[in-house]
Amino acid sequence: MAEQENQEIGHKELAHKTLLQSDALYQYILETSVFPREHECMKELRQMTEKHPWGLMATPPDEGQLINMLVKLINAKKTMEIGVYTGYSLLSTALALPHDGKIFAIDINREYYELGLPMIEKAGVAHKIDFKEGYALPLLDELLLDENNKGAFDFVFVDADKDNYLNYHKRVIELVRVGGLIGYDNTLWSGAVAGPPDAPMLDYVKQFRSYVIEVNKYLAHDSRIEICQIPVGDGITLCRRII
Fold first, then answer.
1. Domains of the chain by start residue, with CATH
2. Residue 151 Cα distances to 45, 129, 143, 174, 192, angstroms
3. Which family does it belong to (predicted)?
4. In this predicted model, what pLDDT tens digit does every residue of 6-43 receive, in sequence order?
5. By Cβ atoms counted within 10 A, which residue in 43, 72, 181, 234 is the most buried?
6. How far apart are CA 44 and CA 31, in angstroms?
């Protein structure tokens, strides 16, 4: 029982999804730069998700703002998202795409996606989303069977099972175009990547810590990409394909 209580407390402590040491500073960022510009449907989706038992999995609003800007900066038209949950980052992307833009969205749980779908529909962007329920690896392998899909995506956002990040990278690197971007979420993993393996940490943080460290090392030495690791949210690593 005590272990369960500690787990619940830990989730509450991490619910703000930021690596900033000052909660006041994070709140300042949100209230000054994020919330005033947050789309009304995104706000509604965020507030709904915050009440969900697994609300911790949601993309934080400042990261959603970053994704929206990145999609616009690279003039993306065709994107992919691996790991959707209720769809906050998905909606952020969809709002940034032109009317004829498309998102190939993958998640193992359609039920969570459908929680956010009314807000996505209300925003008028549901037509841009091609949602696929299932495991990402076989779906990615299926895409790769068609040569026309290679280099066809402008932007890929990955926020899914950390133990498969490396497997995802080995596939999506072929699907994103040269000059396109891949974003990997949670690459600073609550700061655990910089601490000793025996440091006190929540069970799920400890369970996937080694996988996050592994993919960080791999990305740092992958000559096919340029990278930038940003301490927004729980850490996001941007990879620009160069060859």
1. 2-241 (3.40.50.150)
2. 32, 19, 11, 6, 34
3. Belongs to the class I-like SAM-binding methyltransferase superfamily. Cation-dependent O-methyltransferase family.
4. 333 333 344 446 788 889 999 999 999 999 999 999 99
5. 181
6. 16
Residue written as token pair 């911790």: 56
Residues contacting residue 19 through CB under 8 Å, at least 6 positions apart: 188, 190, 191, 231, 233, 234, 235
CB contact at 8 A, 37 and 69: no
Pairing of strands 225-230, 236-241: antiparallel
